[in-house]
Input
Amino acid sequence: MNTTALSWVLGVVICWGLYSVFLHMGSLGMKIEGIKPDPTANRMKAFLWVGIAYFLVAVVGPLIVLKLRGAAITQMPAAASWNSLIAGLLGAVGAFCLLMALSSGTSPAENKQLIALVPTLVFAGAPLVNAMVSVTKEKMWGHTPPQFFIGLVLAAVGAGLVMAYKPSGSHAPGPDKKTGALSTPARPATTPAARPQRQPVQVAEGFADVTTRRYFVS
Output
């Protein structure tokens, strides 16, 4: 792969890697103080801004470039136009599914897990689908080296490991803010002062004190 292609690949990795993070932040940030939370409405508000961004980048941008290059906008083959439209629909529906997955946690702790778990599963599973569909479409299964299949298996194993060992959110006790010492759970006091004192046994003269093993003689 040439450096130009790698540069564009790097751009995709950075943009799509940050996409889920900002989408999650946008959905959670739509909460308004004093108004009853509506998670579904908040998701739709965030998705609306995603659509606006798509319009600016995927509609306004191409029209400007085509105009500057003097290309005929109306000359588009029907089949290619439909395929491109389906690609756009798949991208939009995928973005919607991603948004719903990121904000479908049943607790704040689970929502924190989803921001790390969902994108990893998505970007591990999507290449598998793309690879299998592309190889099938181009009829290249008979010309595919075994390393290709090993890569597919490793991608599936990676997705399984992410599911099995997802972040738990628990952490070890941190240092005390004032002293800097590690905080540890409190333990019951074991000093003599903290233990209940046993009352001395009153004995008559001439009898042995069983607690001290001494004799008192009158």
User: Anything to note?
Assistant: Strands lie at 208-209, 214-215. The longest strand covers residues 208-209. Helices lie at 3-28, 39-69, 78-102, 108-137, 146-164.
